[in-house]
Design a protein that fits this description.
single chain, 774 residues, mainly beta, Immunoglobulin-like, Ferric Hydroxamate Uptake Protein, Chain A, domain 1, Maltoporin, Chain A, 3 domains, 5 helices, 4% helix, globular
């Protein structure tokens, strides 16, 4: 494999020597006011419509063109377009600083058309969030939330109220790879899902890939949510933050060395626990209910060719009822990245990445006291390279090796406890990958992005490993020593997507990609919880595999002010995992004996209309889809709706700048109810009613719908500081969306069963936040 890639690289490089004499220009594009690098900024040669590129995750670009006199155009959403004359008679470096528009919502009339990547880009099934819009979208309790915002996009569905989990094109919540500065975040929720772990103040760029996934990403079946943190202002020191009803946040940033290095520290904390401490109710006084998170990042540019970035995230949730129980969970990540420019075409990024997720559950009852713990720790080494091979090809290639250390669970108790100590063996393994991709501009109309990823999984000792039959009985039990390979898997993952431009305003795109997954989430609850269990592929659990095809029509209107897309997709799923009825997953050494394996399918159509410019902007997204699973041990081997199956999903977002100081926003959502399993009969044993169930997920909860509104009042202009007020009402008309439905014997009518619906938000939830910056 390595020799093949090397030969291909040498051949492609050699071919350029026989081409017309060409020169390369490269550089970095930054924000003129803060020095922040701009990701995805467009660089185009006006005289050569087919020659253009975009900055990578570090703001770097490289562009090659034939010798001549040209006009370069640099564009980025929310920034003024810069045009510069350039002579291509030698290779050179050109760094650009773009000025932010004084009014992000203004209509800009220009001779040159604004960015039209919606039509021209070969990438499909990708959504990029504008942080300025994220900050305007009304959310519960006034906390700006990127995870809540992405679920307003077509093909991405929320896991329900009070839950930051999300489903992408029929995949389950664990089939989404969430990256924060390249580090995996395993549990992205605070307060059991009411908030996400991502403080919007610390975030610079958000992209989610739901189809046509580039070859540099892997490890999950359905999507990649790639989040980049702010680097910090390398011009001036600034302080900003906000004070809300239940939480406050603060961000400090500034130069380490002006124009060469900067830092950013952002922190957030809720203070519900302060109210609990002041409560007159002795049963809750002293209870715990809070979270905090800290984002930090620093960078230093040694010169134009070398730079280092260090970033980290630390977050924790604490929830407990005084003298009864307590639980806490949290994520921590750390990333060290070194950028090196070998020459004006070859860019390298080397990363060392750490990620940890852990939880602790405690019971303080005298006879039932125990402490249960679990964790997953990753250490990852990545090397990514980008090579600009003339004006028609941009190569990306690299490799990574990721070490997993999973401690599934331990229970420790006191001598008085009725529980016994219990230990589940830790599991160790490596995931490896190598990839190569090329963005090929085959003609003025056709652009193809194609690549191949080779992934490997190695499950290692020490430990005792068992195999099970379909009934869960042990077939073999083998003990392996430290570092011994218990099981390994290799999979090739081809990726290809292309765009055919009909004209400046219309294009047709298509893609195919295969993804594999070797880390699996085991959960027998309807939503993500801190105690969900992660396991690796093993001699019982095979890697999950997904093949997805998609095609779509992409259209821009009125000088690219409006974007429209219609995408159709079909996804085949192999080696899907479900649990058997009555499975107990927590601290279970033989948890793999409780699993069953099958297939799945998901298909649908997504419609998206977005207005990007003007005093009024926003978007409408609609998804019509089906998601089904098939297991021999469930529903007599027939297909049944997955719990994330929703036929209809609609979201409408509107943002209106009423004046220079007032901005109003609103969101409306509608979705088909979740697929659920209801009892079809009951019987009485010893005076206790026991319900019997038939088919899995054969019924539907009532549909959900909600209207939220928000408003932002900008403070009067001051030279030294700026402030604003954000107001919101969540669930304006007080609709009761079902969170769960349970069944019980009626207390008033004998021999009848009644359904009890629980809603988290059954009324309007107002919010107000004061934001400041100086």
């Amino acid at each position: 494999m390595t020799k093949t890639l090397l030969i291909l690289f040498i051949l492609l490089t050699t071919l350029t020597a026989f081409a017309q004499k060409k020169y390369t220009i490269n550089g970095t594009i930054k924000d003129a006011a803060t020095g922040e690098t701009l990701i995805g900024a467009s660089v185009r040669i006006q005289e050569l419509s087919s020659v253009g590129t975009a900055t990578n995750s570090y703001g770097f670009y490289s562009l090659t063109a034939p010798e001549g006199e040209y006009t370069l155009q640099f564009t980025y959403i929310g920034y003024q377009t810069t045009v510069q004359k350039i002579s291509f008679h030698k290779s050179q470096v050109l760094n650009i600083a773009l000025q932010a528009k004084t009014d992000l919502q203004e209509v800009v009339i220009r001779a040159n058309k604004p960015n039209n990547d919606n039509v021209a880009s070969p990438q499909m099934g990708v959504e990029k969030l504008n942080m300025a819009q994220v900050n305007q979208v009304p959310v519960v309790l006034g906390e700006r939330d990127i995870l809540k915002t992405i679920t307003l996009m077509p093909g991405i569905k929320t896991a329900g109220e009070g839950n930051t989990g999300f489903y992408v094109r029929g995949g389950s919540s664990d089939q989404n790879l969430i990256l924060l500065d390249e580090a995996t975040v395993y549990n992205a929720s605070h307060l059991l899902g009411f908030f996400s772990t991502f403080n919007s103040d610390a975030i610079k760029d958000v992209s989610i890939y739901k189809g046509g996934m580039p070859a540099e990403y892997g490890g999950r079946l359905s999507s990649v949510l790639d989040i980049k943190m702010n680097e910090g202002n390398n011009k001036d020191f600034t302080v900003q933050g906000g004070i809300g009803l239940i939480s406050s946040r603060l961000k400090v940033e500034g130069p380490l060395v002006k124009d060469k290095g900067s830092f950013m520290i952002s922190a957030r904390r809720t203070y519900i626990d302060f109210f609990l401490k002041a409560s007159s109710d002795s049963s809750i006084k002293g209870s715990s209910l809070y979270f905090y998170d800290i984002n930090a990042k620093a960078n230093y540019h040694f010169n134009d060719k070398n730079a280092i970035y260090i970033s980290g995230y630390f977050g924790k949730d604490v929830l407990g009822l005084k003298d009864v129980f307590g639980t806490n969970w949290g994520n921590s990540t750390g990333t060290i990245r070194f950028n090196h420019l070998f020459n004006n075409r070859l860019f390298s990024n080397t990363s060392i990445i750490y990620s940890n997720y852990n939880y602790v559950i405690q019971s303080f009852e005298s006879n039932d006291n125990f402490k249960a713990t679990s964790k997953i720790t990753d250490v990852n080494l990545k090397e990514d390279l980008q090579y600009s091979l003339g004006s028609s090809h941009t190569l990306k290639f690299g490799l990574n090796i990721l070490h997993h250390d999973i401690a599934p669970g331990d229970i420790s108790t006191s001598q008085e406890s009725s529980f016994n100590d219990k230990h589940v063996e830790q599991r160790y393994g490596y995931e490896t990958a190598a990839y190569l991709s090329d963005e090929w501009k085959a003609s003025d109309k056709l652009t193809i992005l194609y690549g191949l990823r080779l992934s490997g999984m190695f499950l290692l000792g020490p430990g005792t490993f068992k195999t099970y039959d379909a009934a869960g009985n042990t077939l073999t039990s083998t003990t392996y020593g430290l570092g011994s390979v218990v099981k390994n898997y290799f999979n090739l993952e081809p990726r290809i997507s292309g765009s055919y431009t009909i004209n400046d305003e219309n294009s047709i795109k298509a893609s195919y990609n295969r993804n594999t997954q070797n880390i699996h989430l085991l959960s027998n609850s309807t939503s993500s919880t801190p105690t969900d269990l992660y396991v690796m592929s093993s001699n019982n659990i095979k890697p999950e595999i997904a093949d997805q095809v998609s095609t779509g029509w992409f259209r821009n209107f009125k000088e690219n002010t409006y974007e429209f897309s219609a995408e159709v997709y079909y996804k085949w799923l192999q080696n899907q995992i479900d649990y058997k009825d009555g499975a107990q997953l927590l601290v279970n050494q033989d948890v793999e004996s409780l699993l069953t394996y099958g297939t799945g399918r998901a298909y649908g159509v997504e419609l998206f209309l977005k207005k990007k410019y003007g005093r009024f902007n926003g978007w409408v997204g609609y998804t019509l889809s089906r998601t089904e699973r098939k297991f021999d041990a469930i529903n007599n081997g027939n297909y049944f709706p997955a719990r994330q199956d929703r036929t209809h999903d609609l979201s409408v977002v509107g943002i209106y700048q009423f004046s220079k100081r007032w901005t109003f926003s609103s969101t409306f959502i509608y979705g088909t109810g979740n697929a659920v399993t209801y009892p079809t009969g009951k019987y009485n044993v010893g005076g206790l009613t026991t319900f019997s169930y038939s088919e899995r997920n054969g019924y539907r909860q009532p549909s959900s719908n909600r209207l939220d509104i928000g408003a932002t009042l900008e403070g009067k202009e001051h030279k030294k500081y700026h402030s604003s007020w954000t107001f919101g009402i969540y669930n304006v008309y007080g609709h009761r969306d079902p969170y769960s439905i349970t069944f019980r014997d009626s207390k008033t009518v004998p021999n009848t069963t009644e359904a009890v619906e629980t809603s988290i938000f059954a009324t309007q939830i107002p919010s107000v936040t004061w934001n400041f910056k100086f």
